[in-house]
Amino acid sequence: MQITSPAFKQNAARALEDAGLQKALGTAKGAFLQRRAAAVANLPEFERLRDIARDIKNHTLANLDHYLETFAANVEKAGGQVHWCSTADEAREAVLAICRRANARTVTKGKSMISEELGINRHLERHGIQPVETDLGEYILQLRDEPPSHIIAPAFHLNREDWEADFRRMHTDLPKDRVFAERRDILAEARTRLRERFLAADVGITGANFLIAETGSSVIVTNEGNGDLTQTLPRIHIALASIEKVVPTLEDCTSLLRLLARSATGQDFSVYTTFSTGSRRPGDLDGPEEYHVVLVDNGRSNMIGTEFQEMLRCIRCAACMNHCPVYGAVGGHAYGWVYPGPMGSVLTPSLVGVEKTGNLPNASTFCGRCESVCPVKIPLPKMMRHWREREFERHLTPSAARWGLGAWAWFARRPGLYRFATRAAIGALGLLGRGKGAFRSLPLAGNWTKGRDLPVPEPGGTFMSRYAAAQRRGARR
């Protein structure tokens, strides 16, 4: 996938002017917040669970090599195969090789963000293999040839009329009087089209929410059941997962599952939570003949031991982006790669380099809501600040910003001169703006005034002088 993160500002400007996108964002984002709040309120031990989950992930990351080796050994003990892939190229080739050995022509896929990161669909198509997305949102995006805009609701940016228009455009045999008035109408149409694809698939590819070292199992959660069909109907199941998805035990996994759906969709549990362990055994009613786990690093091990290691605790619930005012205003495509919102603003620079993604850590108000709702307590604002520091150290920020920050730092290190300069600036702005109330344009403040007015300073001096005066008045009382 082309990385367009350097164009974040232009992408965001277009998103703000896109009436359809703004309608979709306004309709969808509130529901996630309300449902999560209700789910949390109904679970008194939620905060304690967050601490437990954080500690589970920290322990796992501190011993990641041990748990990955244990997981791989137990996969093989259960009749599966593990493919260790350091890079995206290795992972793509591993998936392709499995499909070729099976003479696969059709591959069904359950939703997997790591497959988006790796560009699996394009790679298979280039080699004559047709991937079919089976998640409802991913299916419509495949028809539109678009990437996801959200990690749990991939078609977050679309309205119902967009779905209907795309079905009519791509499903050319639809009767003209077919009505798509409700969500169930859309579901019925997609289900009808996908049923034959499920039955025809030679290989099924799913992601993994968790990998359990103790049993060699992969775990997926869905609300549509497509994940189960993808991994049980085809002859071969490929679980595609990044290395940080491993957890030590079943008990650890269930603790994390209690947080995942509540944080993501406000459910106690997703409708389907499926544990897969190995290939079909004698006496099993269904299941694949072969079970493969493609374990992907792709830059994650480079985060271990750095100030960004805590990002690897992420369980992909999307609570951070659901609560982010920036994501809520511009949507996911503005971020320009697979992972949007606050988690993407930290993870994307870690995986592809801050040189290509420097705008993302700056796409934050630092309100702290992302950290306050994260089920594993990832300090996202702190890590975005670290990336801003890296960007500044490497002289990647615009020269005007660097000059301005340098000038401010020079004054800030000289408190007397700083107070004099701020008093002078406020006094000058007060005189220039007398009788106006606000400036519609102002030299050196064009980026502010092109989108909003700049209020004229009120009489009474700087904040520091007004604060000192208030303190004096309080002391006299």
From TrEMBL:
SUPFAM superfamilies: alpha-helical ferredoxin, NagB/RpiA/CoA transferase-like. The keyword Ligase does not apply. It comes from Siccirubricoccus soli. This is LutB/LldF family L-lactate oxidation iron-sulfur protein. InterPro entries: 4Fe4S_Fe-S-bd, 4Fe4S_Fe_S_CS, FTHF_cligase-like_sf, Helical_ferredxn, LUD_dom, LutB/LldF, NagB/RpiA_transferase-like. Residues 304-335 form the 4Fe-4S ferredoxin-type domain. It holds the Pfam family Fer4_8. PROSITE patterns: 4FE4S_FER_1, 4FE4S_FER_2. Keywords: 4Fe-4S, Electron transport, Iron, Iron-sulfur, Metal-binding, Repeat, Transport.
